[in-house]
Design brief:
With 241 residues, this protein is of the alpha+beta class. The chain is built from 8 helices and 8 strands, in the order ααβαββββββαβαααα.
Length: 241
């Protein structure tokens, strides 16, 4: 789906291409992987209007243990590039929510975040120890989690990336988080307790509600689209529940 888009906008960006390939490689290991059909007007958006050039492409899949696997690659005005990814688990499974975002303005990575966020009160925490062992000392510009970020785990990583060494370290970190996620999904069986399923549904709803409090997302889109379209895109594509 992204071949044309990648040729035009990210082929010369090794960091985004590396992260994208890594995510796809891990996604391919999931069982029963299938595409999800989404309204084209919300999934593939291209504008060549001078001063408002933009390219947004999305990939939507589902798999055993996951209700939605979403990857978004976007470029705005030939300067702002975004790689956004969220893997929402099927509420029947005790699997955390994988989230990763990379924001790049020209050559500067202003924001890089990755997490396996809890999807229930009694989340399987076996992976906490594995994630806590990952060396984060190489990063010199760690950022503060925003007020709405109480949805993230204690192992959430958020920083600006200052050089190629930090970029490579972040790629390795994303690979580690995804490896843990895939291992969890392959070793987890579905639950059929309506109470715990409902709790996981509510956790995903709260995750989406809190993410929508990030005003930076809407502020970027409002420079190119009207508010009605932006609201629909955020609620139906980025953070549906």
């Amino acid at each position: 789906m992204l071949s044309k888009f990648l040729t035009k906008t990210t082929l010369n960006d090794p960091l985004i291409l590396t992260l994208l390939q890594n995510i796809r490689d891990h996604r391919s290991k999931l069982k029963n992987l299938n595409c999800i059909e989404v309204d084209p007007k919300l999934s593939n958006i291209i504008s060549n209007v001078e001063g408002k050039e933009l390219h947004i492409e999305n990939e939507f899949h589902k798999a055993k243990g996951f209700r939605k696997l979403h990857i978004e690659v976007a470029e705005f005005s030939n300067s702002l590039k975004i790689l956004h990814c969220v893997f929402f688990p099927d509420p029947k499974y005790d699997i955390p929510i994988f989230g990763m975002d990379l924001v790049k303005v020209n050559k500067l990575v202003s924001a890089a975040i990755v997490d396996l966020s809890p999807s229930s009160k009694n989340q399987n925490i076996k992976y906490d120890e594995l994630l806590s062992r990952i060396d984060k000392s190489v990063f010199k510009s760690k950022r503060t989690i925003p007020g709405w970020g109480d949805i993230f785990s204690k192992n959430v990583f958020f920083a600006s990336l200052k050089n190629e060494s930090e970029e490579n370290a972040f790629c390795k970190m994303v690979d580690n988080y995804l490896s843990v996620l895939i291992q969890l999904s392959q070793s987890t069986s579905p639950d059929y307790d309506n109470k715990i399923i409902k709790e996981r549904i509510n956790y995903q709803k709260n995750y989406c509600i809190q993410q929508m409090k990030n005003e930076k997302t809407s502020l970027v889109l409002l420079k190119y689209f009207d508010k009605k379209w932006v609201d629909e895109y955020i609620k139906k594509v980025l953070f549906d529940f």
